[in-house]
Amino acid sequence: MQLNKRQIWIVAIVLLTLVMMTIFMAPRGGGSRLAQGSTYGRSPDGYGAWYAFMQERGTPVERWQKPLRMLLSDQDASKLTVLRISNGIERLGLTPNEQAWVKQGNVLVLLGTHARSTQAPFTSDLSSPQGDIRIETSRRKLNPEGQVWLKDNFGAVVWEQAIGQGKVIYASTPYLAANAYQDFRPNYEFLAKLLADSKHPIWVDEYMHGYQDEGSSTPAEPNQGRSTPVTLLAYLTGTPVLLVIVQAIVFLVVLMWGLNRRLGPAIVVTSPTVNNSEAYIQALAGALYKAECSEFVLETVGKAEQLHIQTALGLGNTLLPLETIVNAWVQQTGRPAAELEATLRMAKRQRRVSEAELNRWLNDIHAVRQHLPSQ
Question: How far apart are CA 109 and CA 288, in angstroms?
Answer without folding.
Answer: 41
